[in-house]
Amino acid sequence: MALAGLNQQSINLLNINTDLMYMNELPLSRTKPFQWTIKRIMDVTLSSMAIIVLTPLFLLLILLIKIDSKGPAVFKQKRMGANKKEFYMYKFRSMVIDAEEKFEHVKKYNQTNPIMFKASDDPRITKVGKFIRRYSLDELPQLFNIIKGEMSIVGPRPPLLRELKAYKAWHYVRFETIPGLTGMWQVNGRANIKDFDAVVNLDYSYIKNWNILLDIGIILKTIPVVLNGNGAA
Predict the structure, then answer these.
(1) Domain map (residue ranges) of the chain
(2) 80, 84, 190, 233: which could join 118 in a potential S-S bond, CB 3.0 to 4.6 Å?
(3) Nearest to 204 by CA among 180, 166, 181, 170
(4) How far apart are CA 75 and CA 71, in angstroms?
């Protein structure tokens, strides 16, 4: 009866806070060690194969980025991963080299929530950058993060450190597993999902229900999403 006056979002929040009490004590690597080992083998195998097959594309993108604008073709950006551990995430550069310095001037273009920043008309994005972002080609260098063990093919997206200032306590559920190249957010609308609480609820659902078949399903769903450029920004 005590729950009768609560809406579904409040009930979900209660469930998340309850799970947070034991998640640190029972990480997926311990609760599902065999499946977690399979996940790691799959990450290394598929990422290595992708890097070999996509090497010509990597070289072409590097050339196009260098021709289009000044600066390195690949850049690294500090993110937060599993257990709130910081690491450098790699991306093909899709913006001008001083994009971070210009961030305060472009916040008005944000098309999503106050925590995340997504803007299709961001003036910092280069011509080549618009194309590679539409088809998520800028994310390909994260295959090396996966091989290093900092990321997985599937998992929550690792946030920028500045985003953490606006996090609610329960948002930290995202750090209970290794971050991913793709995940529930990507296959359920990406930038079209405006509510950050909804984004975290997707991550929570993934962590709570994780198994290797869920990863495989998300990978398969990611392919048409990327090819169609759905929800890209």
Answers:
(1) 9-228
(2) 233
(3) 170
(4) 9
Question: What pLDDT is attached to residue 3?
Answer: 41
Rounded-to-integer distance, Cα 207 and Cα 70, Å: 40
Taking 60 as the threshold, does the pLDDT of residue 191 lie above it?
Answer: yes
Tokens of 87: 């690491």
Q: How far apart are CA 149 and CA 155, in angstroms?
A: 13
In this prediction, residue 21 carries a pLDDT of 47
**229 backbone φψ class: left, alpha, beta (φ>0; ψ -120 to 50):** left
Kindly report the three-state secondary structure assignment for every residue of the chain: CCCCCCCHHHHHHHHHHHHHHHHCCCCHHHHCHHHHHHHHHHHHHHHHHHHHHHHHHHHHHHHHHHHHCCCCCEEEEEEECHHHCEEEEEEECCECCCCCCCHHHHHHHCCCCCCCCCCCCCCCECHHHHHHHHCCHHHCCHHHHHHHCCCEEECCCCCEHHHHHHCCHHHHHHHHCCCEEECHHHHCCHHHCCCHHHHHHHHHHHHHCCCHHHHHHHHHHHHHHHHHCCCCC
How many beta carbons lie within 10 A of that of residue 142, not counting itself? 24
Pairing of strands 180-182, 152-154: parallel
Residue 100 has pLDDT above 80, yes or no: yes
Contact 218, 194 (CB under 8 A): no
